[in-house]
Specification:
6 helices; globular; ATP binding; 113 residues
Amino acid sequence: MEVNEKCDVYSFGVLALEIIMGKHPGDLISLFLSSSTRPMANDMLLIDVLDERPQQVMKPMDEEVMLITRLAFACLSQNPRSRPTMDQVSKMLAAGKSPFKNQLSMIRLGQLQ
């Protein structure tokens, strides 16, 4: 395996999901990598994989949570060429806008890919 920027981007995606989930996302990533379990993973609600320790995600943070989760999934793309660069990730984070207007509790993981 060649170590390059795309490996760093993948690692960022893992770290971002780990922060949002409150645990290592290995099982979730495996669900998305398997063609037999991907439909089930796509149908999971984002709210169901979030870390339960913060009792409530504050409404103003909903967009940020969706944005970071969407970026994390982009960084975890199976095809390294499809992953964004860290510069692109940085710019998207700085812009801070999620394309989703739905409530956090209504977003399915498949919508974030």
